[in-house]
Amino acid sequence: MGLYYEEDIIVAWFLSEIISSSTNEKITFEYTSHTINYPILGNNSLEIDPASNSAVKVQEYIIYPDISTKRVRRINLISNDVKISEVVFDSNKSRNDISGNALSKISVFQGNTLLKYFNVNIENVNNERIFLESIQEFSGDGLSSKPPYEFEYINENLLPGRMEYLADHWGYYSANGTEFPYLAQFPWRSAKSKEPSDYAMYGSLKKIVFPTGGLIRLNMN
Known about the structure:
The chain is mostly beta strands. It has one domain. The protein has no helices and 16 strands. The strands form four sheets. It has a ten-stranded antiparallel sheet, with no helix packed on it. It has a two-stranded antiparallel ribbon with strand order 3-6.
């Protein structure tokens, strides 16, 4: 049995400002607080009897913890106590993996003038994960744009559900996997091999296409 803590535990720190040592300038960071609900398995274990070479699966259950966190809303450049420019982050893209929204737009201001903005496009996969599809730059008036940065992945749509039992010995996805690591004495209840298969690459970044038309290919081995 694991331990459950009711009290809040500090697990993250957020940068609030960067101050120049040579000029009267600083960069400040503003955040919004939000709570996400992220279901996880509360138990996944076996009770093993070495004498009889048998194992009994302990009853599993899913917990739905509320996690309080922050995300950056605005980055400001301040000179002589006057805001010179700012970068604003909007999160209005619906996501299915957790509660809340994903990043959808990044806007760059000079004073009150919108200089340019970036649209951020994501893909919801199997209602379990999100993948960044593209980022595209537009002029402040929205009348002109550049070709997008585009991202491709390896068979991201073939990944199993996040809590399904299809893992190899190391925890990577495997169509032949099970819920437990490889144990020679209990091969009938565990992953069939310690060797990762091609399935382990599913969901990995495969290619980045730049606005100029150039690209980077990533080879996974």
